[in-house]
Amino acid sequence: MYDRILVPTDGSDAAAAGVEAALALARRFDAELSVVHVLDPNEHPPDDAEDPEEVTQWGNEVVDEVVEMATHAGLEATGDVLEHEGSIPETILAYAATHDVDCIVMGTTGRTGLGRYVLGSVAEQTVRASPVPVVTVHEDITFDTEFESILVPTDGSDHALAAADHAVDLAAATGAGLDILHVVDIGALPGSADPTSVLDALEEAGERALNDVIDRATEADVPTVEASVMSGSPYRAIVKYAEENDVGLVVMGTHGRTGLDRYFLGSVTERVVRRSDVPVLVVSKPD
């Protein structure tokens, strides 16, 4: 399913979590691993080197360490230190586009200022702009690729369905079960409308969204399919469901319904990525 996986690294603890996850995922799918470090004029390595040549050398050492880890794990791996052209996310995505990368793995942390590849900076911007799936994993989480279930929230939008298709393919490829979740966002109810009729309409729309994904999973022979409807704050419900049902991976789209934007990155998806104790794979809808 994945032939080439890209993992950016800056030597931080958050990036190290991404490296471990990328190695695990590459082993699971027998994928090649591309390791990159993007040079930054404002970068200050741990040894406080300031000379450009020393900074470049440090970047090479960071990349070489990961490539060596991959080689010892029996994986094919290449490493590159990239010149900073445009923004760091743009540099990473340009590399991904020219090297046929089909998955990016990045470590994250909810605390800013602890590395360049933390959520809220490079990782967040990469997730937003990436045309290929991006897996995010917190620095204190171990990514176990032998997961038994995958959670995919859906609101029936095109972007949610793109994520659902990816989750279905991943479940079929790994033998994992699929948990499909729709959250009725009570907070989105308009104040002037009859709450009962609007809530009924939202629940009916949720059932249709669930059935659509169930049909796709059934056609793909996913071994186990569970569907649930919850109400409340969408991101809180998703995080809670993942924690209480021993989910191994959450798969989400980057956008949601036009106007409501309930699954728009910067809203629900971003909050799930920040707060989830489970790795999150974010999928963008193809143009």
Structural features, described:
The chain has 8 helices and 10 strands. With 287 residues, the chain is α/β, with parallel strands linked by helices. The chain has 2 domains: 4-138, 3-Layer(aba) Sandwich (Rossmann fold), CATH 3.40.50; 149-283, Rossmann fold (3-Layer(aba) Sandwich). Helix 7 runs parallel beside helix 8. The longest helix is centred in the last third of the chain and has 25 residues, at 195-219. It is elongated, with a radius of gyration of 20 Å.
The side-by-side strand order for the widest beta sheet comes to 3-2-1-4-5-10-9-6-7-8
Protein structure class:
alpha/beta
| CATH 2nd-level architecture of the largest domain | 3-Layer(aba) Sandwich
Percentage beta strand: 15-25%
Domain UspA: 1-138, 147-283
InterPro entries: Rossmann-like_a/b/a_fold, Universal_stress_UspA, UspA
Protein name: Universal stress protein
Pfam family, one: Usp
Task: List descriptors.
2 domains; ten-stranded mixed beta sheet; single chain; UspA; Rossmann fold; alpha/beta; elongated; 287 residues
Summarize the helices and strands and which ones pair or pack:
Elements: E1 4-8, H1 13-29, E2 32-38, H2 52-72, E3 77-82, H3 88-98, E4 103-108, H4 122-129, E5 134-138, E6 149-153, H5 158-174, E7 177-184, H6 195-219, E8 225-231, H7 234-244, E9 249-253, H8 268-275, E10 280-283
Parallel strand pairs: 1-2, 1-4, 2-3, 4-5, 6-7, 6-9, 7-8, 9-10
Antiparallel strand pairs: 5-10
